[in-house]
Backbone:
């Protein structure tokens, strides 16, 4: 018959708490013999409550609790040289799936100064960890799928742009050719935008890199002579949500396309400057060129598709557009104020 370790009278309340606890708890003596165990511990690890009192921890069940490292840590905790906090162990039992457990242990002052007692809490985190891994796998799979879709969309847009350019070369009408060129430029700008998004890892988009790479893509596809025309980008350390970055990128590309089409006729040299800066939730985006400026009166061009796109995007961002003389050239400024 197993002999139960002697328990000081003042430990009775601790025993009652341990036994009635809904959490898997063990009350151990200094030599790691079980003084008491909660019913939830016996139920969770399939141990007969009638056989547990007085047994050594290493003898519980079929010996699966005989873990040298855990025993060593419990000894150190009992001596006061260590404390077990969130120590992870794998409990392996015959013909059963291994369980991942988190163990916490500390000495307990139950009024008996001559004997050290240990209170050990055991939490089974197997299912929680499995759910976390499943969630991580789903998030990773979704990110990979989204990136693949973005790559395919960007490739498809480039194919469409090539078809439009080939069609522009074949048509006889100057007006039709101009429309096809406009369509080609917009498809290429969307393709450049898509390429930048496809390299994003999700979450907020860092605008300096994003707008710089986007302007480089636009320049490579639309500026034949970099020595004649250039695009410069100045952006602070702002980062915005992905959908906001898409709108800002589209606004920027439309304004750059417009400047490249109208600001530098007759092989005129010049540059386009893009500037973005923010303060809290307020921000300003400006696209400025040093070209011929905006014609006035009867020479002013009619608002086209690009203007409509910019106005719609700015409205969606709850911003305001300001057009001004850059002396020389034109400045378009979009401001958002809370």
Residues:
């Amino acid at each position: 018959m197993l002999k139960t370790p002697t328990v000081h009278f003042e430990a009775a309340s601790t025993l009652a708490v341990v036994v009635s606890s809904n959490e898997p708890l063990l009350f151990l003596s200094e030599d790691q013999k079980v003084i008491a165990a909660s019913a939830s511990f016996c139920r969770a690890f399939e141990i007969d409550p009638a056989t547990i009192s007085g047994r050594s921890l290493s003898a519980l069940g079929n010996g699966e609790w005989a873990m040298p490292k855990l025993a060593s840590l419990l000894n150190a905790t009992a001596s006061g040289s260590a404390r077990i906090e969130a120590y992870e162990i794998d409990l392996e039992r015959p013909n059963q799936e291994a369980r991942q457990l988190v163990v916490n242990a500390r000495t307990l002052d139950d009024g008996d100064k001559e004997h050290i007692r240990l209170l050990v809490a055991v939490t089974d985190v197997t299912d929680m960890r499995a759910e976390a891994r499943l969630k991580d796998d789903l998030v990773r799979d979704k990110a990979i799928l989204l990136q693949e879709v973005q790559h395919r969309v960007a490739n498809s847009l480039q194919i469409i742009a090539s078809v439009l350019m080939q069609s522009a070369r074949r048509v006889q009408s100057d007006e039709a050719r101009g429309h096809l060129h406009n369509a080609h430029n917009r498809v290429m700008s969307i393709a450049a935008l898509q390429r930048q998004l496809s390299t994003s890892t999700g979450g907020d988009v860092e605008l300096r890199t994003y707008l710089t790479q986007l302007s480089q893509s636009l320049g490579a596809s639309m500026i034949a002579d970099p020595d004649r025309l250039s695009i410069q980008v100045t952006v602070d350390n702002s980062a915005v949500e992905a959908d906001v970055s898409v709108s800002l990128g589209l606004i920027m590309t439309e304004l750059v396309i417009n400047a490249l089409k109208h600001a530098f006729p007759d092989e005129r040299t010049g540059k386009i400057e893009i500037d973005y800066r923010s303060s809290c939730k307020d921000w300003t985006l400006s696209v400025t060129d040093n070209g011929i400026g905006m014609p006035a009166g009867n020479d002013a061009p009619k608002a086209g598709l690009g203007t409509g796109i910019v106005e719609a995007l700015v409205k969606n961002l709850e911003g305001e557009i300001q057009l001004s003389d850059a002396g020389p050239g034109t400045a378009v400024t979009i401001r958002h104020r809370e």
Observations:
- The chain is about 45% helix and 25% strand.
